[in-house]
Amino acid sequence: MNARHGWMRLSLWSVLHFAAALSARAVQQFWAAIPVAVATLSSGIGWLLPLLFSGLGIVVLVALLQYRAFSYRLHDSGIEVRSGVVHKRQVNLQAERVQNVRIEQPVYFRPLGLVSLHVDSAGSSTEEVCLAALDAEQAQELQRRMLAKSQRTVPETSVQTGEDVRRNPSDLAIYGATSNRVWVLAGAAAGIAGQLTERLGAGFEARTAEWWSWWQALVGVPLAAAAVAFAALALGIVALSAAGAVIVYWNYRLHVAGDNVQARYGLLTRRAFRMRKARVQAVVFQQNALARLVGRVNLHLEQIVHRSTHGANAVQRGPIIVPALAPASAIRLGRQVHADLPDVYAARYTAVSVRYFVRLALTLGLFYLAVFGVALQTAAAAEYLWAIAPLLIAHLLLLFARFRRWGVAVDGGFVIIRRGLIGCTYVVLPAAGMQAISLRQSPFTKRAGLVALVELHYASRTERIPFLPAGFAQRLGDYLLAECERRRSSAAETRQALASTASD
User: Of the candidates 106, 123, 151, which is a domain's last residue?
Assistant: First the structure.
């Protein structure tokens, strides 16, 4: 690194980081160019190689410009970064705003022994600072330095032995297999079945004109071939999902001790997270239908960050995920982070009103009525009207299961929101950490003594609970506001006591 007036440059190897980031963004946007690519394939593929080389050259050139435009310097209160080729950007990140500092080692840095240091700040919607191509020891020293300057960080000497969680490959495979959404294949199933029936059953449409002949066709070769192809595709996606989870979370280790939560994992890209317990706000016990079948739950430790960081970037800087735990182990680990965390499985929940299910059922009934009316006008579709009633009943049963899952509990200074369908998700939030609460009440729900929607706004997420009894919703709001006020008063008294001690 070169230093000038306190400003330092990254190693030239950081060009690999900038090129990889540009390539990843290009791949994410490639789907938009698929129609153009398909249209031009008919003219041959001679243009493909020059295009790839041109794209590679542009990526390398832009990466070099980004490297030249990037500089940083450390000061007593934090770190300052300048970046941007066309649009210049300058970030001055104060140490007290540091959310967490993590070290990553992408596969292209591993032969060089280099790592990337990522520094996130509280409330930011984007990653604040990334210092690429640092020496591992230098990155660890910077990590210690940034966290030491951050408020509410305990010294390393005060760290005590705590929970140590490891996940073996079988646990990770279960997590990947149960977390993928196999039902997205339903959209592709129609196309696959259509192609197979065109090739394997030339008279398929004719054979389905009558009810009995349609039933015979269902158990014939075309449907069997489609079913086998669909099953093979589903199993392939499950296997890929399991393999992906093993690669991403390989050698998973999470350690909770003192005021720190640390996680290390990764096969190709090695990641090392370090977060203060004080920054963990929401504890989420997530269990979908497949995970419930095998008796596993995924624990999410969500930090105080901007909401837009969730979703696609969850692995990079969203919640710390502890995959495929037994429910009792998840509760025990959650209590290592929040000592008073309640047992979500034993809490007493206030259910939402049955009017919520009635509203969903009426809306669904109107939709099916419209489908029925359109089908009556279509001769081909009219033959399959018998299928509407079973579909409606199945849909209503699913809505009823969803309604039954909804519940809210208050226990030990925490609010627990329960929801789900076949699986179940429990969101545990500290009562004193709420930022705002809103109650929505229509004339209909007011007459019924209900609140149409309760919204709890936190720094980590917003939770929405429908059709709660008005009395309970009002008491819940009063309790949360009182807890927030008590916390502010306690913090003000602490600051005043510290100021008095310093003046003495």
Answer: 151
| Range list of β-strands (E), 122-277 | 129-135, 164-167, 252-257, 260-265, 270-276
- Give, in degrees to the nearest 5, the angle at Cα 169 between 114 and 341: 90
Domain count, the chain: 2
Q: Check residue 111 and report its DSSP letter.
A: G
Q: What value does the mean pLDDT take over residues 293-318?
A: 65
Helix (H) or strand (E) holding 71: strand 71-75
Q: Are the C-beta atoms of residues 405 and 351 closer than 8 Å to each other?
A: no
CA-nearest of 1, 24, 6 to 132 is: 1
* Residue 156 pLDDT level (bands cut at 50, 70, 90): very low
Give the H/E segment covering residue 152: none
Tell me, yes or no, whether 72 lies in a domain.
Answer: yes
Tokens standing for residue 369: 């009525």
pLDDT band at 383 (very low <50, low <70, confident <90, very high): low
pLDDT of residue 473: 94
Residue type, 146: M
pLDDT in tens, 78-87: 888 999 888 8
Q: Pick left, alpha or beta for residue 224 (phi over 0 → left; psi -120 to 50 → alpha; otherwise beta).
A: alpha
Of the candidates 310, 184, 169, the one whose C-alpha atom is nearest the C-alpha of residue 244 is 169
CA distance 379 to 197: 22
Question: Which residue is it, tokens 């950007």?
Answer: 89
Phi-psi group of 232: left, alpha or beta (phi > 0 → left; psi -120 to 50 → alpha; rest → beta): alpha
21 in a structural domain: yes
Calpha distance 136→6 (Å, rounded): 22
Task: Give domain status of residue 349, yes or no.
Answer: no
Contact, 360 vs 339, CB < 8 A? no
- C-alpha separations of 411 from 346, 460, 480 in Å: 10, 20, 12
Gap between the Cα atoms of 181 and 194, Å rounded:
23
Judge whether 126 lies within some domain.
yes
Q: What is the largest CA-CA distance in the chain?
A: 96
Rounded CA-CA distance 335/325 in Å is: 14
Which domain, by its residues, includes 24? 3-151
Tokens of 222: 């075309």
Task: Judge residue 310's burial from the number of C-beta atoms within 10 Å of its C-beta, 0-12 exposed, 13-18 middle, 19 or more buried.
Answer: middle
Band of residue 453 on the pLDDT scale cut at 50, 70, 90: very high
Q: Which of 151, 172, 190 is the last residue of a domain?
A: 151
Contact partners, residue 462, CB within 8 Å, separation at least 6: 307, 455, 456
